[in-house]
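Entry 14. Ran structure prediction on the chain below.
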Amino acid sequence: MYTWGFVADDEEAAALLDTLPVEALLAFQELMTAVELDPWGIAGKSPGEPNMPNVLFGPHGEGQVSYLILDGPREVWVTRVQWAD
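Output, structure tokens:
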């Protein structure tokens, strides 16, 4: 199992969660629960750097999260969260 968090110097991504609608928060939570179990499987063939995927989430793909996967310590660091209104 991997742990996840926000990149320490990127408070913008963490602050965005406070502004998201409930459906977006639920979709983000569901995504990150799956990422904890298998960040590579969730990443699939998403665009981006090999260890830094960009993954869509939400009922219609309205959200996008970018994260860095560190296999050694089994960590995932969220670098960006976006949501289209």
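The domain at 3-83 is CATH 3.30.2310.20 (YaeB-like fold). Will compare against last week's run tomorrow.
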